Amino acid sequence: MPIPVKIPKLGMSMTAATLVRWLIVDGEPVEPKQSLAEIETDKIVSELESPAGGTLSNRSVAEGDIVPVAQTIAWILADGESAGDIPLTTQQAVQTNSESIELASNSPASVSPAQESLSASGSKRASSSPAVRRLAREQGVELSTVIGSGPDGRITKQDVLQAAQQGAVTSGDDSVVEPLTATRRAITGTVTKSATIPTILLNASADASALIALRQQDKTIAYDDILIRAVAKTLQDHKYLNASYEDAGIRLYSQAHIGLAVAVSAGLLIPVIRGAEKLSLIQIGVERNRLVELVRSRKITAQHMAGGTCTITNLGMYPVDSFTALINPPQAAILSVGRIVQTAVPANDGGVLFQPRMMLGLTLDHRVADGAAGAAFLKDLITRIECPDTEVS
Fold this sequence. Notes:
Elements: E1 3-6, E2 16-22, E3 29-30, E4 35-41, E5 44-49, E6 54-57, E7 66-68, E8 72-77, H1 88-106, H2 113-121, H3 130-139, H4 157-171, H5 182-194, E9 199-207, H6 209-217, H7 223-235, E10 243-246, E11 249-252, E12 258-260, E13 262-264, E14 267-269, E15 272-273, H8 281-296, H9 302-305, E16 310-314, E17 333-346, E18 352-365, H10 371-386
């Protein structure tokens, strides 16, 4: 009996995945657990493994297509089996489900007037191949507005290109609509949720002289390592900043699992350094380097980014003095860090001296922590930054 290859559910919130790349072609033999394709969901690219050994057959999804969880995208045939052995009813159900999901994914939050018109009139959505649907996403064309010229009204590539050209002429510019990647779609969902959280914003600055001296002492230590350790240690004395809001109450965490925002071309990923309050600077640096490499090589997994209790986002490597960061739900706090700037400050003799100072921004979930709690946290954090723990090993 042919065995279906299905999109797995890799996380509680996962409903669909983008098929990034096929690694095996139809008719090619495969081994159990062999990687068949790369799929992307919730900022992560994972390899889809074969459920059994045999021959890959009937790939039904094109690269770039958005596919719902549990949908069959190919089959594994055993020795002596052929494509004719694949259950026909299963193939028909998959095709119907795929088209309905594709229509929903083109407009996740709303229904276009053209779709409303089609729904109201009871008309069926014109059929199209996966390659045509991918081309439509690349060109920013809504397939429900395209009249197909193929057999039985099937939409062709030429129909999509013509619709895209007409749209460009109508708009009067050469702009294009870039389809959302799975990573950008996940980021959109996170920041939209974050925007609904009532927040309080606090700003302060710290003397970075000791940080600079510590880093000059050991070049393997990064500013992020010092900040991660300082934040983790400080959270031990400020429980409401190492917390999250739930309908049943406020969840307080005993350990500090620090998320570090890492920018990549696909968007922003936040791997988590667990139990950072127990780690030395060297240990934090090793773990940070490992996680950043996983992010940049696109091998980061959901497990690497789960369970954070507080996040640090540092733009100090750019000409950014200060900024306000959005909370990373369900966490109650996020610390933003700007660049180190030589700043004039009063001297003890009444004069003025220049000091390297670092701007800090603290965004709090006001349902969990108040301004006074945030101010107390910043006060202690600044003390740790200005007098950092020199224990590096």
